[in-house]
Every structure is written in structure tokens, then in C-alpha cells.
């Protein structure tokens, strides 16, 4: 009579390894876009905070014209990503632009007709007597087009 002796099983089979790799790949495919969105959101939040801090510091030491003339564009570079924020009538507009806009149409308080504001090359937070809070923030003046 033959006796069957079970051999000790060592390691995993190819099928088991393939299943584990497939499950890990599915998890990564789901998690990577969520992680990338989270990282981009953090960059945008950081850029907005830096732009606001730079704007408040600049506006505190500079005599700015009243509502009609205080329109700016803030350019912020965070971790290699450049974002742009409109500052219209001293207020941040929550729209983030990833490319430098040439102009935008806005409606001011009390005005019914949209006004087109054009971006100038005049960096207003780089003048003498002003020390930037963040070196990666540039604030450009806007003019009516």
C-alpha cells in the first residue's frame, strides 16, 4: 500500500500572486486621481493664502485709489504650478486661472454695463520701499480696455 505524504507547501502560487497584484492595481487606479486632486487643491489653497497675504501687505503700505482704480491680477507660483487670481475692487474673485489671462469682463457695483479689464505688465508689488511677503507672488495692475 502506498502512503501519500503531503509535502509542506511553500510560497504562493502564480494565481494567488496575480490576484493580489490585480487588487492592488485596482486600488491604485481609484486612489491616484483622488490623491492628485487633493494635492492640486492644497496647492490652490496655499497659492490663494499667499496671494491674499501679499495683497493685504501691499494694500496696507500703499495708498490705493478708490473702487474704480484698484483692480489687479495676482500671479502665484507654488511647487512649479502658476495660478492667477483676480482682485477686483479690492476683493479676491474665487476663480483660479492656470494660464495668464489677457483680459476679463467685470461688472462693477452700480454699473450695468460690463467693463473689460486688460492685464498690464506693470508689477505693482516690486517698487522701492516695499518688501514682498512672498517672493513667488507678483501683483499686476489692470486697466480698462
Detailed description of the structure:
A six-stranded antiparallel β-sheet has the order 3-2-1-6-5-4, covered by helices on one side. The radius of gyration is 27 Å and the shape is elongated. The chain is of the alpha+beta class and 145 residues long. Strand 2 (81-88) and strand 3 form a beta hairpin. The protein has one domain. The chain is built from one helix and six strands, in the order αββββββ. 33% of the residues lie in helices and 30% in strands.
Task: Map the helices and strands.
Layout: H1 14-61, E1 72-78, E2 81-88, E3 91-97, E4 103-106, E5 115-123, E6 137-144
Antiparallel strand pairs: 1-2, 1-6, 2-3, 4-5, 5-6
Which features does this protein show?
alpha+beta; single chain; 145 residues; 33% helix
Number-wise, the strands total 6
What's the story with the biggest beta sheet?
Answer: 6 strands, antiparallel
β content, as a range? Answer: 25-35%
Domains, number: 1
Strand order of the largest sheet: 3-2-1-6-5-4
- What is the N-to-C succession of helices and strands? HEEEEEE
Q: Which overall shape is indicated by the principal axes computed on the Cα atoms?
A: elongated
Helix percentage range:
25-40%
Low-confidence stretches: none
Structural class: alpha+beta
What's the helix count?
1
Quick structural summary:
The chain is α+β, with helices and mostly antiparallel strands. It is 33% helix and 30% strand.
